[in-house]
Amino acid sequence: MASTTTTRKPANGVRERMDGHDAQHALETRLGVDDPRGANRTADIVLVAAVIAMGLFAGLFYTFSTAVMPGLAAADDRTLVDAMQQMIENPVFPLTFFGAGVLAAVALVQARRAGAAKIAGWIVAGLAFYTVVVVITSVIHFPLNDDLMQAGDPDRIENLAAVRDDFVTPWLAWDIVRTLTSTAAFGCLAWALVMRGRLGRAAQPHRTAGYGRG
User: Is 13 within the bounds of a domain?
Assistant: First the structure.
């Protein structure tokens, strides 16, 4: 009987260590922290990049709605039309415009693969607000921009005041909507990043304890 008891204790200890190790591994896999130099770090970089891009995206609209357009609205007709035609041809805007959405979509895929449902949910919310901005821009602003470009050289436009009024009023009104929705998208992605950081810190003690036992 004594020998039987002696052989069971190590078996229970091994089994307990194995169960603890399995639980630890499952937690690390769920949170995506078992490979800090690989997929986890890539996911961090992508989500941070998405937050930055969306912040630039929202900041651009905010600047236009609160400073650029009100300032141009106070200028003469020719100055406004000429300035807007020059800005419309800026190639940097499409990079930020589409880049923010692409990065957020990649971050969503990575969050779902890691099983981080709450983080993925906030990214989805951010993409939903972003989609609203894309729709507004495509339906309202792009056509207005095209009309302004097709009006031609400001020095040769016959009714410059009419061209200006047809452009400025709807463009600025919907730009305020874009500012609000893009800011909401930025907020959702930023909160997703905060949640990811909290989950990573919560899992860190488990990883450290597991390495110590190993």
Answer: no
Instruction: Kindly state whether residue 98 falls inside one of the protein's structural domains.
Output: yes
173 membership: H or E segment, kind and range: helix 160-213
Whole-prediction pTM: 0.75
What is the total count of domains within the chain? 1
Chain segment 130-159, per-residue pLDDT in tens: 999 999 999 999 999 999 999 999 999 999
Tell me the residue type at 177.
V
Q: Find the domain containing 166 and state its range.
A: 20-213
Cα 58 to Cα 62: distance, rounded to the nearest angstrom: 6
Tell whether the torsion through CA atoms of 188, 191, 197 and 203 is positive or negative: negative
CA dist., res. 52 & res. 139, Å (int): 26
Residue 14 located in a structural domain: no
